[in-house]
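Title: Comparing notes on inverse folding

I've been comparing how different people in this forum approach sequence design from structure. To keep things fair, I'm posting one structure and asking everyone to reply with a full sequence. Here's the target:
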């Protein structure tokens, strides 16, 4: 069974279009999205719709729940673009997926909010080990926008980001391949990177009137250099 694992589309339509062309060549049996369909980029409606149509599993990420539940006042641009039905769907996405391939029990999450804080794959092992409990052989996640793999008591894999990759400003995703079921066998994870039209992604953002923090997003898609966390607790929507 061959599964494409994608995440962090973040409203970047040129990146998603490049991903789709490559998926047609890879021809996976299924495509799973590990969350953060929306936010940051200008085309959240389009990347949401792509994920809902293309992916057999769609998990929720911190941006999905934040936008879907209208947690941050600065996200009005995304609320208006997405509309009520999409926002409701975002707020109710599942947080994780479990499967067994080649005898290995695998846990799939976005990262936050299953993780209380953002955890990079190179962080202290004691921060990561709890996510292999009670009996997982592998945990695959995203959220950090950087690919990587690590072996502890089980394997930890980060698939990177399709639309907002850091370090290397490329489309990043992964292919997971193995045999369904409990019988031990070959299990393969391949980390994929693809060049895409970063300039088009930046121009789309600059042309989108009202896009929050457009210049920060442009910096990230052009250079892969993180521009900082601009959504803060102080900007959370006041509750009645």
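Reply #1:
Here's my take.
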């Amino acid at each position: 069974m061959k599964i494409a694992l994608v995440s962090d589309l973040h409203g970047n339509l040129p990146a998603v279009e490049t991903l789709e062309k490559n998926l047609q060549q890879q021809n996976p049996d299924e495509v799973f999205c590990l969350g953060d369909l929306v936010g940051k980029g200008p085309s959240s409606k389009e990347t949401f719709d792509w994920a809902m149509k293309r992916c057999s599993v769609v998990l929720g990420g911190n941006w999905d729940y934040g936008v879907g539940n209208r947690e941050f006042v600065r996200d009005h641009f995304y609320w208006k673009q997405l509309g009520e039905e999409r926002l409701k769907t975002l707020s109710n996405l599942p947080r994780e997926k479990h499967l067994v391939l080649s005898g290995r029990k695998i846990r799939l999450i976005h990262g936050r909010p299953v993780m209380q804080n953002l955890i990079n794959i190179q962080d202290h092992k004691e921060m990561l080990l709890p996510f292999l409990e009670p009996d997982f052989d592998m945990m695959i996640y995203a959220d950090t926008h950087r690919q990587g793999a690590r072996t502890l008591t089980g394997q930890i894999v980060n698939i990177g980001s399709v639309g907002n990759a850091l370090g290397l400003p490329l489309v990043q995703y992964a292919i997971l391949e193995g045999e369904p079921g409990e019988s031990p066998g070959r299990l393969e994870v391949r980390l994929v990177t693809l060049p895409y039209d970063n300039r088009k992604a930046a121009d789309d953002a600059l042309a989108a009137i009202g896009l929050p923090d457009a210049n920060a997003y442009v910096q990230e898609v052009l250079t892969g250099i993180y521009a900082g966390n601009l959504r803060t607790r102080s900007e959370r929507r006041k509750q009645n």
